[in-house]
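Input record (one chain):
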Amino acid sequence: MRLLLFLLGTSFVCATSATCTVTKESLETVVDLARGASPELAADALIRVAERTELPSGRRIELLEQAFRLATASSHPYRRRSALGSARGPAGYADRAYSLEIDTLSLQARAVEGLLSLDPRKARQRFEDISAIQLPSVTCEEFLVYDVHRFYEVLGEVAASSFTAKEAKEGEPVKFLARYIGVISSPAQVGPVARLLTTAPVADAGFQVLTTAFASALTRIAGDDRSFTFAAEDTGESIRVLAELSRQRQLSPAVVIGAYRSFLVNHLGGKRCEESVSSGNSTQPVDYFNERLHIAAVPLLGETETIASKVEGKAQGLASCESPECRGIREQYRTLVSKGNEGAVQEGDRAQFDWQTRARDFLSSLAAWQQSSGAAPVDYFREKVQAYNDLLAVVPVGDTRDFVLRSLSEFLLQNRLPAENQLDWYLPVTQLAGRIGMDPGAFGRAAEDVRRANDSVIALEMALESVAPRPTNAFMLLL
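The corresponding structure, as predicted from the sequence alone:
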């Protein structure tokens, strides 16, 4: 481990510069680092390394197959996302953490996607090895729902590019897609499958087979309200596009629209969560259906069909920064970025000695903040990470910025979370490595201190950002 950290601090420093070239040796060093990581982080690392064309195709295939196998041991089977809440607090934090895509299904789909350009037939074989999707029901007390979009996007890619012309002529892509479309059982799958069908590389006869299978599955789905309400926000538009495509293919849209109507009635008239019936958007699925989807062959949705049979609980755990300690930190930060009635603190003000002094005082307050009264340890961790990131977003390049980076790094090293909350810890480590990777010169010597930190996860993430960085747009979504 010490040798790998030494290599990380020397060979990879150059890789952060636009004038440097990533080598096969530096990529293999990252592979060595990945061997000591958790399965999900190792799989993520191997997938990202395998994207580099500096490696031979055979080696890239080998790494992707290793990643596919490792993914099965991820502590999270599926990606999740918040159905409620804003960009801040537990909801926003969970969205960013799960967008790392290190759950089993996302990792396996990513590995298959990487294989498609290298060995399409092997990619299809690995895709068929993915376990059937079985999404648990989500209670009204939960605010996280399941997100399986990536799986169905890759399913479409596999169907489009892994079959020979002879296989396509014999209808093999249709049989392949039908195995996945006819068995959907959760509202979270409806929108992704509808979008998949609009781009499926099949002739009219195959399209009819698939849409009929989809419609049949729609009428059987009786999922939880939290998943249904979240999915219904954009599923209607996907159904509209699919119905229009049916018309273009000289097929009746009534099959899909009628099945979607049954799907809506099954859920709108069932047990609903409190937020589902009290929000301003509670009638959105009904209004959209009656105004945009209704055709003569399918009746409008009536009021009696859409009244909930029972209203159950509401989401818990969305509140944040309720402790006096957190509120005090937030108020102190507010004075760094706002002059009250005089407006926001400008960039020039932040370069002044007085502001820099107050920023360091804020860091001292952060260091002294050891817990949040009445909050769970993971909530305290998230709140403190948010405070560090808020400061990093406004402090100018210089010694104070270096000090902030070192302080955040030390906090992460000293506050490893238990296994069930590892995703919450991985996120700020990834954010830290990504910030340095995007602009290493903005952090001075502090960047080198982080690069040499005696922690295998930080070492791996720093190495990845040097040789296989995330695209800038993807990384910005993590902040």
